[in-house]
Each structure stands twice: as C-alpha cells, then as structure tokens.
Amino acid sequence: MHATLPLLEATDFPPLRRGALGVLQINLGYRCNQSCVHCHVNAGPTRKEMMDADDVDLAIEVLRARRVGTLDLTGGAPELHQQFRRLVTAARELGVKVIDRCNLTIMFEPGQEDLDVFLAENQVEVVASLPCYSAANVDRQRGDGVFGKSVAALQKLNSRGYARTGSGLMLNLVYNPQGPSLPPAQKELEAQYRQELWDHFGVEFNQLFTLVNMPIQRFGSTLISRGLFADYMRLLKENFASANLDNVMCRTLVSVDWRGHLYDCDFNQQLGIRLAGTVNPHLRDLLKNDFSGEPIAIADHCYGCTAGQGSSCGGALDH
To answer: Are 301 and 13 in contact (CB under 8 A)?
Structure first.
C-alpha cells in the first residue's frame, strides 16, 4: 500500500487550536467483517489490533474524571471488541451519550444476533454506514450481498424503535462518495434516501451524514495507484471554505487509537500524527489535561474537512 503522509505533510492549511473536550472518540481496533475501498482505517477481517482491557478501564476513568459528554466508538467494527458492551454499559451508567459507528452487516455475525436489543436497551445512538440507497452501488463498494444485509439490519433497528417518533433512539446514516469527488448537498441527498428507503423497504432514519473520502490509507493508496492523488487534492483545495474552520470536529474531540494513544482526529490517527506539541500522549494524560487551547496538528488532508459544505463525523458542517 502506498504511503500518503509524505504527500500531505507540507501544507498551507490555516492553524487551528483546540477548545474544551466534549467528545472522546475511541477506535477499539481494526478488525472488521468488511473490507471497503473507501476505508481510511484499512480495516478488515484479518486485522488483529484491538484495545486491551486495561485501556478500556482507563477510558471509563477518563469519562468519569473529565465528565466527557459523548463517547464515540469506532473501528473496524467496534462491536467485535470483547469489551464493547462493558464499555457501553459503563459509559451509560455515567450518563454519557454513546455513539456506535456501525456497518450494519455486523448484526448478522456470530454472537451479534442480539446487538439491536443491546443498543436499544442502552439508548445508544447508531451511526450506520450506507453509501447509497442502490443495491448495485453498495455491493460494488462493499461486496456482494452487503446492501441486502444492511437493509435487514435497518429494519431490525426500526423494529426496536430506532428513528420512531418519541422513542429517543437515534439512527443516522452515512454516505461516502464512491470515488474522488465531493459529496452532493446533504439535505437534498437525505431527502432522496428517505424516500427510496421508505418506499422500497419501509425503513426510517433520523439524519443522513455526508462525508468526504480522505486521501489516506486504502483510499489514498488507490488514488496514487490510479494517478489521481494530485487531482483529488486540487479538488479539495479549490473548494476550501474558511467558514467551516470554526466547526471542524478536532476542536472539541480527542481521538484514541487501540493502544490508548491520543490524536486530534481519526484521520491524524491513521497517519500517525500525534497531538501537536506532545510526545506519545496517552489516555492517562487526559486525567490531568484536556489540552484546551493547544494547537491542532494539521496537514494537507485537513482540506477534506473544509471543502465545500464541509465534513465531520456528524456530516456536513454547512447545513
């Protein structure tokens, strides 16, 4: 796989500083039941990296000590981690909002048959990957049969009350472009998703998040192989919108890798770019410092979060 960091390190992206810590985003490990072309983590079924129990305990302590409002769990497929349910339960007992970044098909893996029940009982917000409402497009990007399983999983979640009025159970979908292009306007695409999924499958959801594909890891390597990396970076830079700088996720989020190390965002994590001005920062450091006011480590991939309508873990920044 081609390394993308050497192509991103030299940058003219504007400097940023962190605000107060609001979200602890933890990558529990890279094991996943899927291997998607756009995956910036390069996750897959053969990956072995998983957070150990001691660091899971430490994460719970950080949530308690820092009074963090939101725990955002990602992977890989975070549900495959043996400590996933214990961590979710502990966070909810502390009154922390929990987000599960779910690929949907995980619900049909052995041992995950009751995942929808667990998520609903713990009022976990589900952010579910569904790169298109077309079976052909999804299966092309993620593998044969993925769309059918994804729809079946959404129906399971709806049956538990997700996205139903008055339930309080949030189900949000995520769209990624299938190639080196910016996503369409979020509101218009959300309306299309809503109509297509309801008309054909009776599926409901709360919001659609449109995300820009980052030129790193598997997707970035693919761009290099196809000779498209420079063109894609030019697209991101030509569509830079300074108004998005105030709302980028790195201002209030700390990203944690499977070893407990800290980063400004999930993308920096995958590039190995640690918190600016720190040496090997770890979860234990959050027990005494939330890094408010510190500079954010930037590189050229940051243009992906600020291009066009903007992009973050919560979708478009310019709604």
So the answer is: no
Instruction: Identify the CA nearest to 169 among candidates 119, 129, 208, 210.
Output: 119
What is the rounded distance in angstroms from the CA atom of residue 104 to the CA atom of residue 172? Answer: 12
Mean pLDDT of 10-20: 96
Using CB atoms within 10 Å of the CB of residue 170, give its burial: 0 to 12 exposed, 13 to 18 middle, 19+ buried. Answer: middle
pTM score: 0.92
Name every residue whose Cβ is closer than 8 Å to that of residue 102 and which is 6 or more positions away in sequence: 77, 78, 79, 126, 127, 128, 129, 153
Instruction: Find how far residue 257's CA is from the centre of its chain.
Output: 13
**What type of residue sits at position 96?**
V
107-121 tens-digit pLDDT = 999 999 999 999 999
Collect all residues with Cβ–Cβ distance below 8 Å to 305 and sequence separation of at least 6. 212, 244, 248, 249, 250, 265, 267, 311, 312, 317
3-state secondary structure 90-131: HHHHCCCEEEEEECCHHHHCCCCCCHHHHHHHCCCEEEEECC
Beta-carbon-side half-sphere exposure of residue 126 (alpha carbons within 13 Å): 35
What the chain holds in terms of domains, given with CATH numbers, is: 5-306 (3.20.20.70)
80-87 long-range contacts (CB < 8 A, ≥24 apart) are 80/29, 80/31, 80/32, 80/33, 80/106, 80/109, 81/28, 81/29, 81/31, 81/50, 81/51, 82/50, 83/28, 83/51, 83/53, 83/56, 84/28, 85/118, 86/56, 87/26, 87/28, 87/56, 87/59, 87/60
CB atoms within 10 A of CB 318: 14
pLDDT digits (tens, 9 = 90+) for 212-246: 999 988 889 999 999 999 999 999 999 999 999 99
- Alpha-helix runs per DSSP H in the chain: 5-8, 53-66, 84-93, 115-121, 135-142, 146-159, 186-201, 217-225, 229-238, 266-271, 303-306
